[in-house]
Amino acid sequence: VHTNATAEAKEQQERDTPVFRKTLPEVFPKKYLYAEHGVLLVATETVSDDVPLCLGLGEVRNIVRLVPCFVEGVAATLDKNWETGAVILEEVQDKTRWSVGPCSTDGALSRAPNGTALSGPGVYSPDGPLCHVKQMDGLRAGRCIDVDNGEAENLKPGGQVLVYPCVSRWNQHPSFGHGDLVGALHVHVPSRVLSSIARGGRALDARLCLGVKGRDWREAL
Length: 221
Known about the structure:
Blueprint: H1 7-16, E1 20-22, H2 24-27, E2 39-40, E3 53-57, E4 64-68, E5 97-104, E6 108-111, E7 117-120, E8 131-135, E9 144-147, E10 161-164, E11 186-188, H3 191-199, E12 207-209
Antiparallel strand pairs: 1-5, 2-5, 3-4, 5-8, 6-7, 9-10, 11-12
């Protein structure tokens, strides 16, 4: 916060910045922690495919994309409903593990029996808690999922999703969704950003889902 910021600007920033206190053990039941090895964020429509796809990173750069969840040959050996339990760490593709948390305190985050993340609404957060989602592997371990240029006035759907050093900015605090967005990672655009966009004669939905450009891991991003 700049020391010369006005009182009104400070109050607006406080309203737009969630308080993060919960850690992963407080959010998910202990039986789902698996010795805190992290979680796989699997694309729902690929769970039963020959090659399930997970949120991950490529070999270079910070760009987030969908990649095979497992090393070659493992997917064919998976049990039915594998997504409801644990997997073997050594069989997981590199850079597909994520840690969830800390999260804001308003609302509740849980895990459904089928493995879907369930986000319960809070008093002030209709879509439930906002969380840091951090990469756990490689040189970019500890970096947060980030909506590129989240503060830019030209913000619009279709921007890059990447990992970036964690800071307390809204574009690094996705929600797991509630109601019509259950299980859908998305960010909430603060009112000050929406107001700025509106003054420029444009409109933008307050919730932006995290899509993955190209979807296919074989397609260069």
